[in-house]
Fold these 3 entries.
Entry 1:
Amino acid sequence: MNNNITMKLNADELIMLALKEDISSEDVSTNAVMPHYQKGEVQLIAKQDGIICGLYVFQRVFELLDSNTVTEFYFKDGDAVHNKDIVGKVTGDIRVLLSGERTALNYLQRMSGIATYTNEVAKLFEGSNTKLLDTRKTTPNMRIFEKYAVKTGGGNNHRYNLSDGVLLKDNHIGAAGSVAKAVKAAKEYAPFVRKIEVECETLEMVKEAADAGADIIMLDNMPIGVMKQAIEIIAGRAETECSGNVTKENVEALTKIGVDYISSGALTHSAPILDLSLKNLHAVN
């Protein structure tokens, strides 16, 4: 999936929902101080170091309010920014600049925060053959933006949604009756182009999944020593993924055990925002 194209195809509808959430009828504060059109300019300034991400989304917020708004950036998504850097400027109707400010910054700060956190974690993977993945633990209606931010920060995307791939978790296995039955049912139902991944919590489940022909085996919340045993049991019959409580504090140790993938929900659910601000608003001719 080309996340940049996919995001552009889906962004406008989601951004409009966010704008409607923030402006249910009118922006009372802005209309009070600026009742008529006045062209203005405001600067986008970084207030801490990080990886910038979401500039297109930031831009679209203002364009959807007024297509005549012009945004100029001095950086691109994926670039490092530093405290006090002027990232860009927005020029247009001052009423639009004021009304769109919070929504635009919410997107940009959130996405840049995820890209920054992911970048910090991805650096710990350098020199290893293990790939860093995100999860579906995303903010509702923000997944397309958050997964794009993970890619921008140097991570990789796991499946986008439930239609995107087969992942048999504990409750799927419970519903089917066993690991083997769940894998068999998935093989019979899913298109042959779909890989089948199975979440395993014990070595017994790992053996059953490998014997049943799973394509990927997720080692869920296992101690490192048990994971090493699981990899020996799998013996190359399936790809391996480590998951569960993965953070930048423990990921370095996990890359050394030889799993193919490490997935971390923290990339999207625990990344702090990157502090950015719109400042120095003033009228222009």
Entry 2:
Amino acid sequence: MAEMKDLVIADAHAHIFPGKIAEKAVGAIGAFYSIPMQHPGSPEALLESGRAIEVRKYLVCSTATRPGQVVSINDFIRESCAVHPEFVGFGTLHPSFPDIPGEIRRIREMGLRGVKLHPDFQQFSIDDPAAFPIYEGCAEGGLPILFHTGDDRYDWSAPARMAVVAKRYPALICIAAHFGGYNHWQDVELYRDLPNVFFDTSSTLFKLPQERALALIETMGPQRFFFGTDFPMWDHREELERFLALGLPAEARDAILYRNFQRVFEVAV
């Protein structure tokens, strides 16, 4: 197994929150999943956790649970990226936001690289036509969307719904978080012939047996996976240890740890 200090690493799934609401936001996420959070949710806490494994770049995001939060969250992500060059920012949108095309233009003008959606938090089905303007605008604007996918309590973010969107918008890069569908990994096969669907490793390796994780990586191809921690839910060192325990060949390991991040988001790592 490679030494951590010898690896190049990008974290493709990390959440940050403004200091004044970070504690409340992290507590709400922990309560939603009944999983204790490992860290505070501030940008500074993210950087501190990532230093343990020398993370070079972080995809940072936050989710607007109400339309009225969209603009302020996007401003916060932009400001955080300006202060921390290690950050690659993803904005947020909401199907009920009154000016989706205008906010997509603003997201691009601010230099943000994509959009994060969490249908379970935002309470909409991924394939709801109300969300189609988001997908159309992001596909046209070259903005990938990081989707929370899968939950055994809800159907909003089911892989089958994600597959509908990916088929309808083949130009849209869809990142199906949590190996394509948390607690619904049996349905990930739906993405096999959808090359615009990518995946991340976040919030999965603590639960998914190694042999199944390896089978999914082999089936979908390591070129479609990103390493992600779902910070502040998990600790960087802990997540990297879980990932390295898969024993992937160096080429596949490095593709997932940073090369795919570099290629898809067009940033140096």
Entry 3:
Amino acid sequence: MTSATERLRAALGFGDPFAEPPLESLPEDLQGWAGRDPVLRRAVEIVRPRLVVEVGTWKGQSAVFMAEICRELGLDAAILCIDTWLGSLEHLVDDRFRPLLGVRRGRPTLYEQFLSNVRARGLEGYLTPLPQTSGTAARFLQCRGIVADLVYLDASHEEPDVLADLEAYWPLLRPGGLLVGDDCTANFPGVVRALTIFARRHALEPRVEGVKFVLRKPDVPTVRVRATEATATLP
């Protein structure tokens, strides 16, 4: 019997990213932001996913955390990590964040760092990278007929990008599944505005817990109701 990860990799058509020796092995570095949040643990425990799609992976802190929970629970689960591994706007323009890119030979080494982190934790059987933009990756998954049980959005903080990711990945979430998003705070108003627009548009009631927001996809279509203003629940 094939595993969930083997089935995912067969559907993607790229093979096993860990089958060959790494081009560059780096010491473990799981630096990140709120990647081990209890909200993620509860989401995995509630959904008990066969497939998690993470949009915005960075060095893999949250992906590794969810994979370790899946292993702890004995779940046959696959986690698909979508990222360009090139950093986002704030990493390019803010001198505080630029060193985190680990630039060598003129490009970030975030992808190599992610692969090294996964190997260090022995999680090659759970995690599969898809180096691509979020928009193109969503269209690719739709073409492949891939549907997730849990989606975690933690990519761009710009309002148009966040709204586009919400609209792109909501159809890829099965009914009853959960979409969790990061950075829903006053520090990232673009995330808050995008969530508010999306929730109103789809008649959803987002739940905000700390820096994370959670949306549950209805099992059946629902009548339109007034969505809670996300800003009302911010600390």
